[in-house]
Amino acid sequence: MVNEPLGANTCFWYTPPYFRKGAAGEGKYTDEYKTKTHKMIFEMMQKEGKLLIQHNPLPEYNLPNFFRLVLKGEKSKLEDMPYLLDEIDRMG
Predict the structure, then answer these.
(1) 2 domain residue, yes or no
(2) 16: burial class by Cβ within 10 Å (0-12, 13-18, 19+)?
(3) What's the whole-model pTM score?
(4) How many C-beta atoms surround the C-beta of residue 37 within 10 A?
(5) Domain CATH for 54
(6) What range does the domain containing 43 cover?
(7) What's the domain count of the chain?
(8) pLDDT per position in the chain (92 positions), as tens?
(9) Distance between CA 92 and CA 76 in Å, rounded?
């Protein structure tokens, strides 16, 4: 490596409570729902202005929209992660 890594990509899907294990909608969280859910949350992030995490699909691997969080070295703090996840859950 020429340089130390500048950041890490963390890619994940958000699963709304309705589709979580034991919910009535279990097993029905289709790719279409994933795409719509991530777009809706992204739009809410933009509107509220508290945080912004990019979302995108990977069509070459047939993967629907997911969140792509880039964590940068010293600026990323473990104590920030619960806030970030709680905000996504609140919006979802």
Answers:
(1) no
(2) middle
(3) 0.81
(4) 21
(5) 3.90.1150
(6) 7-91
(7) 1
(8) 566 667 788 899 999 988 887 666 556 889 999 999 999 999 999 999 999 999 999 999 999 999 999 887 777 788 888 999 999 999 99
(9) 23
